[in-house]
Amino acid sequence: MTDYKEQSKETNWDDGHRLWPLPNMPWTMKQTWNDLLFAHFPVNFNVLRKLVPNIFPLDTYDGVCWVGVVPFHMTDIRLRGLPPIPGTDKFPELNVRTYVTIDGKPGVYFFSLDATNLLAIKVARTFYHLPYVRANMKVEKQGDMIEYESVRKSEDARFVADYRPVSEKYFAEKGSFEEWLVERYCLYTLNPKGVPLRCDILHHPWELQLAEANIKENTMLSSRGIVVENDSVVLHYSKQIEVRMWPLVKAF
C-alpha cells in the first residue's frame, strides 16, 4: 500500500508540526497564498455561538472568541497530476473566519470566502461545501504596501484597506496567542445533509510579521451579523506560503 504521508514530503515538506497525522490518501490541490493580512477582532462567545453551527465547539483564548478577516491573493493553483489551468490558476480571495476544535484538532470555520473566479467558486461550493461568494476585487502593490479592495456582487459586503509589514519575520512562539490564531491545519464545514466534515491542509509553519493597516471600509463582519467586542484589531502579515489540501473526511 502506498504511504501517502511519505508523499507529502516529496519536496522535503515536514508534517511534524501538525498535531495529528495526515489522511492516508493523496493530496488533491496545491495553492500558493501571497501577501496575507490577518486582521483579528474580539467577539463575545454568546454572540458567536448563535452564528456557528452548534456541532462545532468554539475555541476561545483567555475566554474570548476571535474572528479574522483575511485578504490575500492565490497563485499556482492546480489539481494533483494536472498543470495549472489558465484563467483558474490565480485570483484574489478574502476570508471571514473563526476557530473551532473537534477531537483535539484545531481548525478554521468560514463564514464566507469572497473570490473573483466563477469556476473556482462553483467547484469549491460543490466539492468542499464552502460558502464562496463572488466579488469584484482589486489588489495592487506599491513597494511593501498592499492596496486591497473587495466589493461583493450580491450584497453590501466590502473591504477596502492598505496594509504592510512593519517588523522582521518571525515564527509564533509555542503556546502563544499568535500560534493559537494561525497554526491550524484543517478547515471544517457541513455538507448539505448537515454532516460535519474536515479538510486537512499542510504547509510550513507561518512566517509572520507585525503589520499596520488603514482599513477604510469593512462591512464583512456586519454583513454576517458579527458584532465585535470593541474597535481593537490585531494585525499580522505573511508574505507567502505554499499549501496542499486533502479530500474531505468526516470530522467525527
Automatic annotation (TrEMBL):
Pfam families: DUF2071 (PF09844)
Name of protein: DUF2071 domain-containing protein
SUPFAM superfamilies for this protein: Acetoacetate decarboxylase-like (SSF160104)
